[in-house]
Design a protein that fits this description.
4 helices; 13% strand; 109 residues; elongated
Length: 109
């Protein structure tokens, strides 16, 4: 079984994939959605992560016509990305169980 290390990067990856599981968006809208949930990620972090997730085939980059002359990039989750999201959800669920057990573990006498 593939072991996923839980790091701040994988946590951010999880949040991004969760947001994009419901709809496609350009980076500036993704950043606004992240900000609205209290996840402050600068563009200098967001863009490299979007490129990496695209390279890993978790996201696909598309294009949206804005007007006659401008087009903007959009990002959508792929089937591979949905599988990655499920994997990360399993890891976070397991971590949650461990934390709950640790919180309620009796103190040694």
């Amino acid at each position: 079984m593939n072991r996923t290390k839980l790091t701040s990067k994988t946590t951010t990856e999880y949040i991004l994939l969760t947001l994009l599981a419901t709809r496609s968006d350009p980076a500036n809208i993704i950043k606004q959605r992240l900000n609205s949930i209290g996840c402050k990620i600068p563009f200098g972090t967001l863009y490299p992560l979007l490129r990496e997730l695209n390279k890993k085939k978790f996201l696909i980059q598309g294009h949206e016509q804005m007007d006659d002359t401008s087009v903007r990039k959009t990002y959508s989750i792929t089937e591979t990305g949905k599988q990655r999201l499920l994997e990360l959800e399993r890891v976070l669920t397991k971590l949650n169980k461990i934390i709950r057990r640790a919180k309620f573990q009796p103190s040694p006498k």
